[in-house]
Amino acid sequence: MVEQRAPHLVVFTGAGISAESGIQTFRASDGLWADHPVEEVATPEGWRRDPERVLRFYDQRRDQVRRARPNAAHKALASLEKQGFAVSIITQNIDDLHERAGSRRVLHLHGEILKARSTVDARMHYPLPRGGIRLGDLCDKGSQLRPDVVWFGEGVPHFADACETVARADLLLVVGTSLAVMPAAALLEHTPLDAPCVLVDPEASALAPPGTAGLEQPAGKGVPALVRHWKRERRLWLPEALLGEA
């Protein structure tokens, strides 16, 4: 007897899902990013010019992440995994809200703010359960620690792993991203031909590529609605009552 494989949902999340937990995006006109130009705090050049400023900025963001709580979308995805579905999450977000909600397979394309890493060996990571990073905090090789975040102009080290994960999807769910950030947006090109793709976003009809179904709802409403359907049917499908073809 051949054992039936669990349905494999691959979820690609962006800033929109975390925004509903109170974490502001760098595109927002207010909040932490408003007084900090991206090139000053999120580039290798900004780090070389003023590392202390960069560390202060990420300390602020870290505090914001620690205060935030997983929302209904994070929790719904974790609950689907507990129901026996195989759920792989690929996120552009640097927070740990998916993990705190209970998801076990999470790939962070752009790093994790609650970790530090060496400036001479990117393989050396250090958890930051509390506090932040200061000038003079060194890795085991004696080099200054920096935020474990992929800055603009840097490579995305886990992109190949993300492509392999998407290639094994039975359905690809995209949540809260404009699909404008490369190379992450190119992940959709690796979806199997027979795997449906759905975008959950308040502007889904304008953002969804051709052939992608759109659900024009915020993550905290749209994702739990889809998960309820999938749990009831024990399969991944696109309920026509919820979705409109983009």
UniProtKB/TrEMBL annotation:
2 residues (Tyr-58 and Arg-61) present in a large hydrophobic pocket are probably involved in substrate specificity. They are important for desuccinylation activity, but dispensable for deacetylation activity. It comes from Halomonas saccharevitans. GO terms for cellular component: cytoplasm. HAMAP family: Sirtuin_ClassIII. Its EC number is 2.3.1.286. This is NAD-dependent protein deacylase. InterPro entries: DHS-like_NAD/FAD-binding_dom, NAD-dep_sirtuin_deacylases, Sirtuin, Sirtuin_cat_small_dom_sf, Sirtuin_class_III, Ssirtuin_cat_dom. NAD-dependent lysine deacetylase and desuccinylase that specifically removes acetyl and succinyl groups on target proteins. Modulates the activities of several proteins which are inactive in their acylated form. It is found in: Cytoplasm. Substrate binds at residues 58, 61.
